[in-house]
Design a protein that fits this description.
Elements: H1 20-46, H2 52-58, H3 64-67, H4 69-92, H5 94-113, H6 118-146, H7 152-180, H8 184-187, H9 189-203, H10 218-236, H11 243-266, H12 280-310, H13 315-343, H14 345-366, H15 373-400, H16 408-434, H17 440-480
Helix pairs in contact: 1-6, 1-7, 1-9, 4-5, 4-6, 4-10, 4-16, 5-6, 5-9, 7-13, 10-11, 10-16, 12-13, 12-14, 12-15, 12-16, 12-17, 13-14, 13-15, 14-15, 14-17, 16-17
């Protein structure tokens, strides 16, 4: 083919426009930024576990119950702020909220690293949680907006795998960094956060028209934080305070929680839509999520304390000991999908919770004061990894099974909030039962009590999940019944 001047025309090709390569590079950069922020938020949920004994030794006069607020404060604030942060993102843009979260998380990590006492460290951890609360609900939305349609499923799978691998990474790297200084557990966040902030300004997509509507109830979120904090304080101080003081805190927590529920019933944009809790399947799934998370957090916390305080292991060895279980979580989570499809989400949650429970019961039956990893701890670690992968994969499906599609996002946010609250309660309950044993024999008995609680929470979560499965089958059968003419 030639042009009118007799010059050969350029061949017709289906090559992509010149800017297609730039778009792909920008999408890859956006994925790295989003994954980095999400990874940091998930990483710092558990990474401090391995450092608590070392921090306790450095901060003279500190106690395990006081240091537990570095875990509980993070979990409580993250739980209370995830839902409002997601709604704020809808109003002012996911990119803006994500970058604010990265900046706050990075600054808070620096403050954690230079902390000179427990109150300073706890306050910095609370700031970290505020940043994480902005990262978690915005990351998936930004990912879907930045990935090309044909690559979204693959991007979401990779994003989930990265989040699932964060605890394993934290367990191992946290133990290694602990050999240099526990402060490096927080300083390591700084280069990742700076990269995410700088690159995110360029690579993340910006919504043209953020949603309109009322801002969520920030005061309601504060009431929820105060109520759960009061319950947590009562639990961790139970061995030290009088019965009257503990009862007073519980009463205070109940009053504040009642105020929170009242606001949810009256506010135009409540933190929790109470109508969702009237859906039986959703309510049962949240109860199961709460119990599962209590068991999960108590299990991880107890493992770290047992290895370091009872067996005298280093942070590196403790992290390596838990690594086999945590490392199989992202792999097992991907393999769990066909199992969930075959047996149903509720049955999968029950199976996963049951596996974790069996692992803890094994520890109760076999643990001795003399270290014996392969025979004693490893079976429980592997059951924990496989069970938690199956349960967490199915939990969101089980929770949203009874909801209308328009309520999926809100329902998922509430379940994530409940999970974080369960983790705070799990650590607090275990500390309350552990107390301050003076001899190895007393420690063995105290850990047994804590492990019985851990196993009980997991076992009840399994029973509730089985009941949820029966309810869903009953509801489906009832819906399928022919209507009489």
């Amino acid at each position: 083919m030639t042009t009118g001047e007799g010059v050969a025309a350029p061949p017709q090709t289906s090559a992509a426009p010149p800017d297609a390569g730039d778009a792909r590079r920008k999408a890859r950069l956006a994925f790295l930024v989003i994954s980095a922020g999400f990874f940091l938020a998930q990483l710092d949920t558990l990474i401090v576990n391995v450092a608590l004994p070392t921090i306790n030794q450095e901060f003279h006069g500190s106690t395990l119950s006081g240091l537990s607020w570095t875990l509980n404060g993070y979990a409580i604030v993250l739980a209370a702020l995830m839902v409002p942060a997601g709604r704020w993102a809808d109003r002012i843009g996911r990119k803006n909220v994500f970058l604010i979260g990265v900046a706050l998380f990075t600054v808070a990590s620096l403050l954690c690293g230079i902390a000179t006492n427990v109150p300073f460290l706890v306050a910095a951890r609370v700031l970290q949680a505020m940043g994480a609360a902005a990262l978690v609900p915005t990351s998936l939305g930004l990912l879907l907006a930045s990935a090309p349609p044909e690559g979204r499923a693959k991007a979401v799978s990779a994003w989930a795998a990265i989040g699932g691998s964060a605890p394993a990474f934290g367990s191992l790297v946290g133990g290694v960094l602990l050999q240099a200084d526990w402060r490096w557990l927080f300083f390591i966040n700084l280069p990742v956060g700076i990269f995410a902030l700088v690159a995110g300004l360029r690579a993340l997509p910006t919504e043209e028209k953020p949603e309109q509507g009322p801002f969520p109830d920030a005061f309601g979120a504060l009431l929820l934080m105060i109520s759960i904090s009061a319950v947590t304080l009562a639990l961790v101080k139970a061995p030290e305070w009088s019965a009257g003081q503990i009862a007073g805190l519980f009463v205070f927590a109940a009053v504040v929680l009642g105020w929170f529920v009242f606001r949810c019933s009256r506010h135009e944009s409540p933190l929790i839509d109470l109508s969702l809790l009237r859906v039986p399947a959703f309510m049962m799934a949240n109860i199961s999520a709460l119990l599962y998370s209590i068991s999960f957090a108590a299990l991880v916390f107890s493992f770290m304390q047992w290895c370091q305080d009872v067996w005298g292991w280093s942070g590196v060895r403790t992290g390596m000991a838990l690594l086999p279980g945590l490392a199989i979580v992202p792999v097992a989570a991907r393999l769990a999908a066909p199992v969930v499809k075959r047996i149903g989400a509720a049955s999968a949650v029950a199976t996963g919770s049951g596996a974790m429970t069996v692992g803890v019961v094994w520890w109760i039956a076999t643990a001795e004061l003399q270290p014996e990893y392969v025979k004693v701890l490893l079976p429980g670690v592997l059951l924990f990894g496989a069970g938690s992968a199956l349960a967490i994969t199915a939990l969101m499906n089980a929770a949203t099974a009874g909801l209308a599609p328009t309520a999926f996002a809100t329902g998922s946010a509430i379940v994530n909030m409940v999970r974080q609250l369960g983790m705070a309660l799990g650590v607090s309950l275990f500390i309350a039962l552990l107390g301050t044993p003076d001899t190895p024999e007393e420690a063995r008995t105290a850990f047994d009590h804590g492990w019985i609680l851990t196993a009980a929470a997991g076992g009840v979560a399994a029973v509730v999940s089985l009941a949820l499965g029966l309810w869903l089958r009953f509801a489906a059968a009832k819906k399928a019944e022919p209507v009489a003419a």
